[in-house]
Design goal:
It is a single chain. With about 150 residues, this protein is an alpha/beta fold. It has one domain: D-tyrosyl-trna(Tyr) Deacylase, Chain: A. It is about 25% helix and about 35% strand. It is built from three helices and eight strands, in the order E-E-E-H-E-E-E-H-E-E-H. The strands form two sheets. Strands 1, 2, 3, 6, 7 and 8 form a six-stranded mixed sheet that branches. Strands 4-5 form a two-stranded antiparallel sheet. Helix 1 packs across helix 2 (about 100-115).
């Protein structure tokens, strides 16, 4: 699982001219899945994301979590996080999870976020979306579950 975390002043998702999700200050999360991801992976990643201390305190130090600043979350499915351009210039997406399973995991991901955060918005899975954002900082982090929580080889 990969999550691109962006601290934002605001963010929104528009589909066919209709704004379907929008937030104020908080995190925009682009989320992608790969084979082997499961509910345990999602729970670990959710907890990691929500505990990130990326928001400034009264001294301007990145010391506060999303909860501490009463921030909102906008989650957007993004299979292209698994795009591979090692061979040539056209991305290969063979490492991205198949849409049927990824759709189930994405719905679960959003529900898991909602268990912990009062204000969670979501884009629509497997839909062409226009994502608008105003970065705060900008502050962007790349999280990969295989790096954060290596799987044990049997």
């Amino acid at each position: 699982m990969r999550v691109l975390v962006q601290e934002v002043k605001s963010a929104s998702v528009t589909i066919e001219g209709e704004t379907v999700a929008s937030i104020g200050h908080g995190m925009l999360l682009f989320v992608g899945f790969t084979e082997g991801d499961n509910e345990a992976t999602l729970c670990k990643m959710r907890d990691k994301v929500l505990k990130l201390r990326i928001f400034p305190d009264e001294n301007g130090k990145t010391n506060l979590s999303l909860d501490a600043v009463h921030g909102e979350v906008l989650s957007v499915s993004q299979f292209t996080l698994y795009g591979d351009v090692k061979e040539g210039n056209r991305p290969s997406f063979v490492n991205a999870m198949k849409p049927e399973e990824a759709s189930r995991l994405y719905a679960l991901w959003v529900n898991l976020l909602r268990e912990k955060i009062p204000s969670v918005q979501s884009g629509r899975f497997q839909t062409t979306m226009e994502v608008a954002l105003v970065n705060d900082g900008p502050f962007t982090l790349w999280l990969d579950s295989n790096e954060l929580f290596p799987r044990k080889v049997a």
